[in-house]
Design goal:
It is a single chain. The protein is an alpha/beta fold and 231 residues long. It has 2 domains: 192 residues, Vaccinia Virus protein VP39 (Rossmann fold), CATH 3.40.50; 32 residues, no CATH class. It is 40% helix and 20% strand. Strands 1, 2, 3, 4, 5, 6, 7 and 8 form an 8-stranded mixed beta sheet that branches. The longest helix is centred in the first third of the chain and has 14 residues. The two termini are 26 Å apart.
Length: 231
């Protein structure tokens, strides 16, 4: 899910946020193997990835080399950003699929705020409990669906420790000192329709998702929620 090519609407939002700006300093917190970092580097930006996994960072370096770009790789957690990087050193920070796994989401966003320059942007992408409840219910796991609505997780075997509603994400970003933009729903229909339909008309599905991304009802059932916020 980290690959920009599999998140076309998130990629479009990022491109719109930095349109007309060149040679930006971009930080991808928890950026893994560079699904977003490498395409951003190919646009001419200076990109740093911070990730706790040495294997992921090795994959990032291979991907960057294959693309003919340079991406700086640092091992560490999102909560350590203030220790790893200078204050006010990034124009754009990506925090995608990170808040679900860190020990303290509020502290992680406070750390992000430290490294974002005034006027800079943070992009947050996180799992949505409502979508997970729908998926568990459709699989016949009704008790798990109820649990995820109550607690954000459906049990001990759930690989995702926590999930966030749009309101919860917005509140966390506001508390960290950011001005929050509109909540967008990512993968409203993609994870619900049979794969054969998606394969038959991928462009039609992307256009449907583009219409649904800010729909006031449909965005709240998307698999993931996306917010852009400004310092």
């Amino acid at each position: 899910m980290r690959d920009a090519t599999r998140q076309p609407l998130v990629w479009e939002s990022l491109q719109a946020a930095i349109a007309g700006r060149s040679a930006l300093d971009i930080l991808d917190a928890g950026g893994g193997t560079g699904g977003f970092a490498v395409p951003l580097a190919r646009l001419g930006h200076s990109v740093t990835v911070v990730d706790p996994s040495p294997d992921s960072l090795a994959g990032l370096e291979r991907r960057a080399a294959e693309a003919g770009v340079t991406v700086t790789a640092l091992q560490g957690d999102a909560g350590d950003l203030a220790d790893l990087l200078p204050a006010a050193s990034a124009d754009l920070v990506l925090c995608h699929s990170v808040l679900e796994y860190v020990d303290d989401p509020a502290a992680a966003l406070a750390s992000v705020h430290t490294v974002v320059r005034p006027g800079g942007v943070v992009s947050v992408l996180a799992a949505n409990p409502v979508a997970t409840a729908i998926h568990r219910a459709l699989a016949g796991n009704f008790a798990e669906a109820a649990d995820v609505l109550r607690t954000g997780t459906w049990g001990e075997k759930d690989p995702t420790p926590r999930r966030f509603t749009g309101d919860t994400l917005a509140a966390l970003l506001s508390k960290a000192g950011f001005t929050v933009g509109e909540v967008q729903g990512v993968r409203v229909f993609t994870d619900l329709v049979p794969s054969r339909f998606a394969e038959d008309d991928p462009d039609g599905l992307v256009e449907l998702e583009r219409v649904a991304i800010t729909h006031p009802v449909l965005r709240d059932i998307a698999t993931r929620l996306h917010l852009l916020a400004h310092r």
